[in-house]
């Protein structure tokens, strides 16, 4: 059974800092990995999607890396801003037929950027 | 971009009543829709997968007679919580997968804004 773990569970940083969020998964048979942002009481916003054959994806101040063999991904946020405060979720899409290509989510990292 | 809406955004109902939540794909056709439940400070847990025109597939531990899912069209799926109890209070999020075309990313899902259900 695939398990996705995110570390740290919560993070508080001053504005302007660069930070790294970590995601690990137990089963490397993934189709892709996706990072989402969730604001309190809201749905999910997709940030970055990395296919299993890719090593990283970048969008603005965000950079996500994937090391499938070791079961790890990191989300790097440069020059953090108060508006980045949210919960960040990591999810992997499985390839195995028994998983039905489902997304398996981590518990998330709650980020607070202080002004 | 692809947009998924949910209605209502929040609902309060009395214990024992039923409540229906709608999920719509606004600008694309969704062969497959997913329903998730999220408890406070926890991650999303998949409840069921529905394919248009067929019965939903429920995850282990999810009561199909309590959580009725209908996916009657390519743009609408509904989740009905029957005989709701306080323990059903949660944040319900739907997600839609676009019918795959040559220009889309396979299996990409788009998420709705969620519905907060409170059962008193």
Question: What does this 3D model show about the protein?
Answer:
The complex is a heterodimer of chains A (115) and B (120). Chain A is an all-beta fold. Chain A has strands spanning 4-7, 10-14, 19-25, 30-38, 44-51, 56-59, 62-67, 72-77, 86-94, 103-105, 109-114. Helix content of chain A is 0%, strand content 58%. In chain A, the strands form 2 sheets. In chain A, strands 2, 4, 5, 9, 10 and 11 form a 6-stranded mixed beta sheet that branches. In chain A, a hairpin with an 8-residue loop joins strand 9 and strand 10. Chain A starts with a strand and ends with a strand. The mean pLDDT of chain A is 93. Chain B has 120 residues and is mostly beta strands. Chain B is built from no helices and 11 strands. In chain B, strand 7 and strand 8 form a beta hairpin. The mean pLDDT of chain B is 90. The A-B interface holds A 31-32, 36, 41-46, 49, 89, 93, 100-103, 105-108, 110 and B 4, 6, 34, 41-46, 49, 57, 91, 93, 95, 105-114, 116.
Distance between the termini of chain A: 41 Å
Could you tell me the mean pLDDT of chain B?
90
Assembly state (oligomeric):
heterodimer
Number of contiguous helices of chain B: 0
Q: Describe the biggest sheet of chain B? A: 7 strands, mixed
Supply the helix-strand structural class of chain B: mainly beta
Question: Any idea what the shape of chain B is?
Answer: globular
Give start-end ranges of low-pLDDT stretches of chain A. Answer: none
What fraction of residues of chain B sit in β-strands? over 45%
Order of helices and strands of chain B: EEEEEEEEEEE
Number of separate strands of chain B: 11
Summed up, the helix count of chain A is: 0
Residue share in helices of chain B? under 10%
Helix share, percent of chain A = under 10%
Please report the total strand number of chain A as a whole number. Answer: 11
Concise summary:
Chain A is an all-beta fold and 115 residues long. In chain A, strands 2, 4, 5, 9, 10 and 11 form a six-stranded mixed sheet that branches. Chain A has a five-stranded antiparallel sheet with strand order 1-3-8-7-6, with no helix packed on it.
């Amino acid at each position: 059974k695939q398990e996705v773990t995110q570390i740290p569970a919560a993070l508080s940083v001053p504005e302007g800092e660069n930070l790294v969020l970590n995601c690990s998964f137990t089963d490397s048979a993934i189709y892709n990995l996706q990072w989402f942002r969730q604001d309190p009481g809201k749905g999910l916003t997709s940030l970055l999607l990395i296919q299993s054959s890719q090593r990283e994806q970048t969008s603005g101040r965000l950079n996500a890396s994937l090391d499938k063999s070791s079961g790890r991904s990191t989300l790097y946020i440069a020059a953090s801003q108060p508006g980045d405060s949210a919960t960040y979720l990591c999810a992997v899409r499985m390839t195995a037929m028994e998983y039905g290509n489902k997304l398996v989510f981590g518990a998330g990292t709650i980020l607070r950027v202080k002004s | 971009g692809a947009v998924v809406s949910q209605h209502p955004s929040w609902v309060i109902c009395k214990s024992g009543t039923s409540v229906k939540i709608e999920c719509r794909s606004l600008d694309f056709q969704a062969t497959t829709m997913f329903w998730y439940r999220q408890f406070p400070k926890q991650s999303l847990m998949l409840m069921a997968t529905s394919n248009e025109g067929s019965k939903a597939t429920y995850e282990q531990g999810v009561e199909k007679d309590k959580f009725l899912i209908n996916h009657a069209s390519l743009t609408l799926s509904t989740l009905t919580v029957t005989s709701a109890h306080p323990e059903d209070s949660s944040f319900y999020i739907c997600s839609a997968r676009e019918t795959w075309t040559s220009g889309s990313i396979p299996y990409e899902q788009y998420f709705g804004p969620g519905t907060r259900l409170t059962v008193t």
